[in-house]
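FORM 7B: Structural annotation worksheet

SECTION A. Query
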Amino acid sequence: MDTATGPRCQIDPRAHRDALTVPGPQKLEGFSVWKDFVHDHFPWLEHRNHCSGRFSARVTTHRVCSFEFATIQASASEVIRTRHLAEAAENGFVKLLWQKSGALFLEQDGKHCSLEPGEFAVCDTVRPYRVGLSDAATFAVLMLPHDSISGWHYLSSKVCGTKLTDVARPKVAFEALTTLVGLPSETIRDEGESVLQAVQSLLSASIQQAGGVSSDASARDARLHKARRHIVENIGNPGLGPDDLATTLCMSRRALYLLFKGHQITPAKMIHDIRLERAHCCIDDERNDHRKMTDIALDLGFSDYATFSRLFRARFGVTPSEHRMRRRFAKSPPVVPNG
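SECTION B. Predicted structure
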């Protein structure tokens, strides 16, 4: 049985001006071609071909900042993330599935569901899961970082492997994304952030409802989102800190720390995480290859390159320069010896 695995790069939904990729539709003929596509877009998966004839697929992929959005029609098949592959993957993502035709089977955390057209489900890529498709099934998949969904670390074990009971809000979110990626590139860069924020809010509300989150918890999550937006909007300010966030949220410093403690994070860590994710996205973007690492660090509010490099390595396992070199090497064509 054919299998394939591979690494995945981190992306950042807030870096909407730093990354924009909207390739056209692709027709994939043959299971090996399908595996290569999945390796490039959704790695660290095993593959199983359940098609009795020749395997084929049609895919349309879009990357708007850190949102990876694809529509896929494929022959009967299965993808599996084993425990070993989940541990090997560099980063975790929320994966939302919208069934458009045919049937899809999802299993995670001992729970499973079958999706019919118009239904939605969610899984977490940090843990093992399995997705199976009926022949010629069509579905849309959206991958976004964990912190795009308020309270995800609490909700993940509750909602993964089950259908979302709320259909209206996910449908609006997916349709908004479908409309967005069909617009000219300049329009996406100029207007995309507001659409992505709306999509985040809709999906967070739907997943919170599925996880039984109370209205009080939703209000706390809304304040955390406001804090995150303030950080993004002031990312270049090296003096950004808890006092700024407390003022923005109209609360005391003590109340701010209690709010963040409820989400198992501190204000300083959120600021560092957002800066590091933005930096990772900037380095991944070829248009920034001419920029010095020190300039990227200073633009994102780091006080100096040494601090930036130390934090980046602690988060991603490599220095910023090493990460850039790895990306360039990975994209370089293999050297074929003469003779």
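SECTION C. Observations
The radius of gyration is 20 Å. The longest strand covers residues 56-64.

SECTION D. Sign-off
Analyst initials: ____
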